[in-house]
Specification:
The protein is α+β, with helices and mostly antiparallel strands. The chain folds into 3 domains: 3-65 and 201-227, Pseudouridine synthase; 68-199, Pseudouridine synthase; 233-280, Archaeosine Trna-guanine Transglycosylase, Chain: A, domain 4, CATH 2.30.130. The protein has helices spanning 15-30, 60-64, 98-104, 129-134, 174-184, 218-221, and strands spanning 3-9, 35-37, 45-53, 68-76, 78-80, 89-91, 110-114, 123-124, 127-128, 144-158, 161-168, 189-199, 202-203, 233-235, 247-248, 254-260, 263-271, 274-280. Strands 1, 2, 3, 4, 7, 10, 11, 12 and 13 form a 9-stranded mixed β-sheet that branches. The longest helix is centred in the N-terminal third of the chain and has 16 residues, at 15-30.
């Protein structure tokens, strides 16, 4: 049994809590089975959290780099040490106008350097940022290169709060946008709410509430692994391949979905006319 469950994580739940709940549901039906989420959501964030079941968890690295979409609300004229509403609020700075905000957004689109929030899982000297921050250490996390496809102001939701639609690559820190947009406008800002509306091929329109799942029905919601891997199809008849042998093929370089007698097997990689096994996913 392998595939994905597209879960709508609720605000306040941790990603680990969601996975553990699903492990319990799956275990009661199938016994011990691997389960893992594909891209952490902070407890204060809600939205799309894909969870891999069985061998589908082997695609973690693949989906971690896929495009994500978020709806975020930023408050201006104040900040917190965590850059979200969980931290201690410090009021200070002005509330920018809509036109001012829109004028600086192009600076944050494309391939950019972004400094992670201090309260994050990013490591420095063998310790997580949030560990150093909780100890009161003075430090600065090194910047990372991220890709932002679009950053659009959707409207004003309160006198000091604005809503944004963000499409970005994996590893982007949404809380950093609140800080950095505010700094570009000579003020302060932090994230008041965050929802992931898409993660790769998984969208909120098809996401499930965790409470909908039971040991008797979860298989009905399981998305087959080959349905969400967008590689071309290759039927491989040479049984040596399934023993780990690299074989010659007449195909262009790239990744392929491999089928064995019509059944999905996993992924393979072609380089220079040679096909080698990548991941067994069936």
């Amino acid at each position: 049994m392998t595939g994905f469950l597209n879960i709508d994580k609720q605000r306040g739940d941790t990603s680990t809590y969601v996975v553990n709940r699903i492990k319990g549901i799956v275990r009661r039906s199938l016994g011990k089975t691997a389960c893992g989420h594909l891209g952490t959501l902070d407890p204060l964030a809600s939205g799309v959290l894909p969870v891999g079941i069985g061998n589908a968890t082997r695609l973690f690295d693949y989906f971690l780099s896929k495009e994500k979409r978020y709806t975020a609300r930023f408050r201006f004229g104040a900040t917190t040490d965590t850059l979200d509403c969980e931290g201690e609020v410090t009021v200070g700075g002005r509330i920018p106008a809509t036109g001012e905000i829109e004028s600086v957004l192009p600076r944050f689109v494309g391939t950019i350097e972004q400094y992670p929030p201090k309260f994050s899982a990013r490591c420095l000297g063998g310790k997580r940022g949030y560990e150093l921050a909780r100890m009161g250490e003075e430090f600065e996390l090194p910047p990372k290169t991220v890709t932002v496809k679009s950053l659009v102001l959707k409207g004003q939701t309160a006198p000091d709060e604005f809503e944004f639609d963000i499409v970005c690559g994996g590893g982007t820190y949404i809380r950093s946008f609140a800080r950095d947009i505010a700094l570009a406008l000579g003020t302060q800002g932090y994230t008041t709410s965050l929802r992931r509306t898409a993660s790769g091929p998984f969208t909120e329109e098809t996401a499930l509430q965790l409470d909908e799942l039971t040991p008797d029905n979860f298989e009905n919601y399981l998305i087959p692994t080959d349905m969400v891997v967008p590689f071309p199809v290759m039927d491989v008849l040479d049984e040596r391949y399934y023993q780990g042998v690299w074989i010659n093929v007449d195909a262009e370089d790239g990744q392929y979905k491999i089928y064995r007698e019509g059944r999905f097997y996993g992924t393979g990689i072609v380089e220079g006319g040679v096909l080698r096994p990548d991941k067994k996913l069936c």
